[in-house]
UniProtKB/TrEMBL annotation:
It comes from Actinotalea fermentans. Part of the ABC transporter FtsEX involved in cellular division. It is a multi-pass membrane protein. Residues 185-302 form the ABC3 transporter permease C-terminal domain. This is Cell division protein FtsX. Residues 56-161 form the FtsX extracellular domain. Belongs to the ABC-4 integral membrane protein family. FtsX subfamily. Keywords: Cell cycle, Cell division, Cell membrane, Membrane, Transmembrane, Transmembrane helix. The keyword Transmembrane applies.
Length: 304
């Protein structure tokens, strides 16, 4: 009997404040979509870091004929200089830091260049002699790039030492800032959702003050009186969370898996399964919004 009464009160309250309830659903949907997007973006960043940083290499570019770097004053790196660098890279001193070493000749560099730009007429005049030989060094720990850089930077026969992480950092920084922007927008929208749920519960409580007074006169407890109002907000917020989860799933499936993953093949994008990882968080946040709004509102507006 009590359950039937509570359900009837919930239905009555939702119908009476239908426009406000719809507003709660929509604001919760938008705010939780930003929360979920921020979480998914951070997951994508972590995936890219884990994948790309494991592949990152240190490139030791050897002197070509045309360099004006002081360490290349003697011209192109000689075979003796190349072998000395190789021996040190493969020696015991750098063994704790170096995982593997690959030497790329000018001819191999030219082949790679042709694979990338062979169809571009702008680079048709490029020849093998304009390429640079280089050592590609995979590190055990990519963060210890400085060990290799300090060892070979400025050495005779070496033009420059480059860390490929420097190419990745601007992209990672951009994605991190995008994640922070999404999180900031989510926080603003969550505040708006709390205020709107609070307003909805307050209006519903004020419109039923007479019923509330009667219930209190017959000995109903505070929980029994307040429960329908709390559940109204929780139901509206949970519907918004469900819409947010569905929207994120469709977004990841059709925008990322079907479109981006097909267009940008060198990035390992997150899959739709990642949405189910953040889904419980979104539901918990939705229920938390309703709970906070209820605590703020009901203690005052259900008093008679």
């Amino acid at each position: 009997m009590r359950l039937q009464f509570i359900l009837a009160e919930i239905g009555h309250g939702l119908r009476r404040n239908l426009s406000m309830s719809i507003s709660v659903v929509l604001v919760t949907f938008v705010s939780l979509t930003f929360v979920g997007a921020a979480g998914l973006l951070q997951m994508q960043i972590d995936t890219m870091k884990g994948e790309w940083y494991d592949r990152v290499q240190v490139s030791i570019f050897l002197c070509p004929d045309f360099s004006d770097v002081p360490s290349c004053a003697g011209g192109e790196a000689t075979p003796e200089q190349i072998e000395a660098i190789r021996a040190e890279l493969e020696g015991e001193g750098l063994a704790p830091y170096v995982e593997r070493v690959y030497f790329e000749t000018k001819e191999q560099a030219f082949e790679s260049f042709q694979d990338l730009y062979g169809d571009n007429s702008t680079f048709a005049a490029v020849t093998v002699d304009q390429m640079q030989a280089s050592f590609r060094v995979a590190l055990v720990d990519p963060s210890q790039y400085e060990v290799v850089s300090e060892t070979f930077q400025g050495r005779t026969g070496v033009e420059t030492v480059e860390d490929q992480r420097e190419l990745l950092e601007p992209l990672i920084l951009l994605l991190n800032r995008s994640s922070l922007v999404a999180a900031g927008l989510a926080a603003v929208m969550l505040l708006a959702a709390v205020l709107l749920i609070t307003t909805t519960i307050r209006l519903s409580a004020m419109s039923r003050r007479r019923e509330t007074g009667i219930m209190r006169l017959v000995g109903a407890s505070n929980l029994f009186i307040q429960l329908p109002f709390m559940l109204e907000g929780a139901i509206a917020a949970t519907i918004g969370a469900a819409m947010s989860i569905a929207g994120l799933w469709f977004g990841v499936t059709y925008l990322i898996e079907d479109w981006l993953a097909g267009s940008i093949r060198f990035v390992n994008f997150i899959q739709a399964d990642a949405v189910w990882t953040v889904a419980p968080l979104l539901v918990v946040v939705a229920i938390g919004l309703a709970a906070i709004s209820s605590v703020v509102t009901l203690s005052r507006y259900t008093k008679v």
